[in-house]
Amino acid sequence: MVAVVAATRWWRMLLVLSAAGMGASGAPQPPNILLLLMDDMGWGDLGVYGEPSRETPNLDRMAAEGTLFPNFYSANPLCSPSRAALLTGRLPIRNGFYTTNAHARNAYTPQEIVGGIPDSEQLLPELLKEAGYVTKIVGKWHLGHRPQFHPLKHGFDEWFGSPNCHFGPYDNKARPNIPVYRDWEMVGRYYEEFPINLKTGEANLTQIYLQEALDFIKRQARRRPFFLYWAVDATHAPVYASKPFLGTSRRGRYGDAVREMDDSIGKMLQLLQDLRIADSTFVFFTSDNGAALISAPEQGGSNGPFLCGKQTTFEGGMREPALAWWPGHIAAGQVSHQLGSITDLFTTSLALAGLTPPSDRAIDGLNLLPALLQGRLMDRPVFYYRGDTLMAATLGQHKAHFWTWTNSWENFRQGMDFCPGQNVSGVTTHTLEDHTKLPLIFHLGRDPGERFPLSFASTEYQEALSRIAQVVQQHQEALVPGQPQLNVCNWAVMVSGWCVGGCPVPGCSHPPGAPDEPWPAQGGGGEAGAVPGLHPGPGPWCLSVQDSGCWSQATWDQCHTAPGLLQVPGRLPS
Ligand SMILES: *[C@@H]1O[C@H](CO)[C@@H](O)[C@H](O)[C@H]1NC(C)=O
Ligand SMILES: *[C@@H]1O[C@H](CO)[C@@H](O)[C@H](O)[C@H]1NC(C)=O
Ligand SMILES: [Ca+2]
């Protein structure tokens, strides 16, 4: 942490010396912070990362003018926990964005779940406000949709976007389409006021999100420093793009979405230049988890040379494209081999604002400024969790898997494949395999695809294991897990439970034909659509839940005025 303190001081000096750091009053002002978070975009999706179509000229230019991180990681292979980690600087196991329903299960926040970001967590925008920042989120929040979880209650001054994924259309009373908000007010719903044409792939949402960003930047340019979190979702299935981009990519519809992202980011960076605030705005680009190969190639991206994708703790699930841009401060055309984490965006942003992270809790994020400004490399582990389970850890070039799993044979046979075309014997397993006694270790430099485990007898294995084991032991001994927020079958966190066989939901009938196991092998994490075997509670078969549930027409008014539930103006689902 010594380096962190030093970097903060160094930055303060730089502020004093640099005209760009002067606010209107002439007082030093910390830089604006613009975080560009993609959804399910993979490491292999950018031209500068080797994507052969080379359709991301703006991002490639951003890399050429800034720093590229080849070894940058999400904190989870799924949207909600990854976003919670970004905004808290803490692993999901600490901030509560995980489930204990079963061992090593992914979980997120579909609209039926009522868990969310606990008040006890301190979010980046809350802290930045203390340093005078004006804060805005554009796009997907995904940290809970009850009033206590609203982004404006967690430090954001403004919001345009949605609490959930743009799945749908649901178009039914029991399960309405996902709402879209402007600040406190619901201004419409996906597929209704904000159309997404699943057939053609046309939606104007990225253009709307771009305009929100440009307006905010223009408004804030000469005022207090801003923090803009641009969390757009066009590259998450169902992928979409606006008319001018549809059909323009060699890669198909997913590529169209990427091209629109790239174009939008180009426009934002150009605006920063035009307003002459580029040198006082720190910009960071990354993605929340690896490409969803389950939706590829039509609706999902590429993880380049890495194994598997979203949902898994192989490299393809968690290694992300990452670019930092801050003209005049970050030298152009750099590559940093620093092991980075999405939690670092929390700590780095605080350092930029001249703030130190909260000292009353464990923070996983590092301040990346020494890596960015001085080319330093800091020793740090990367932990790969799936739900409550530490699946793997990377230190230096070595990665140790303590558990391996993709998904169950049952789900796999039903067509859910997280590693299409890839089968590394004994590694991409369809049963949860315990390697805690003798971890599988890979050298990610020689073998980025995790195909050739080191021989257990080799000196390299022994040395790597002893180094990693030591770090993991320290981590686990000090770990204080947060209260799990994403449990299903838990009345404390669910609106009305989920109708899974064996789930103790009073009055909720078992859906005809549903499997009997209490919790399906890959339940709760199947963002790509319906999860076989998992039946969301307020579905049409749960008559008693529909009657008393919060999504039904009959109880809409009641639900939306009842304490503890979203109070939204806006119309009833038709
Ligand atoms: C997108 O906006 C254009 C121009 O306003 C409009 O013609 C088109 O119908 C919109 N498309 C969708 C899917 O909303
Ligand atoms: C992967 O290969 C192993 C060994 O050949 C085989 O036992 C296993 O069934 C294969 N898995 C899949 C999903 O094809
Ligand atoms: Ca995602």
CATH architecture descriptor name of the largest domain = 3-Layer(aba) Sandwich
Mean pLDDT: 83
Q: Can you summarize the main beta sheet?
A: 10 strands, mixed
CATH superfamily of the largest domain: Alkaline Phosphatase, subunit A
The structural class is: alpha/beta
End-to-end Cα distance, whole Å, is 55 Å
Which molecules other than protein and nucleic acid are bound?
2-acetamido-2-deoxy-beta-D-glucopyranose, calcium ion
CATH class (first level) name of the largest domain: Alpha Beta
Radius of gyration, taken over Cα atoms and rounded to an integer in Å:
23 Å
User: Strand-residue fraction?
Assistant: 5-15%
Give the fraction of residues assigned to helices: 10-25%
Our count of domains comes out at 2
Runs in which pLDDT lies below 50 for 5 or more consecutive residues are: 1-24, 489-574
What oligomerization state is this entry in?
Answer: single chain
Major beta sheet, strand line-up: 7-6-5-4-8-1-9-11-2-12
Looking at the structure, the CATH topology of the largest domain is Alkaline Phosphatase, subunit A
Number of discrete helical segments: 14
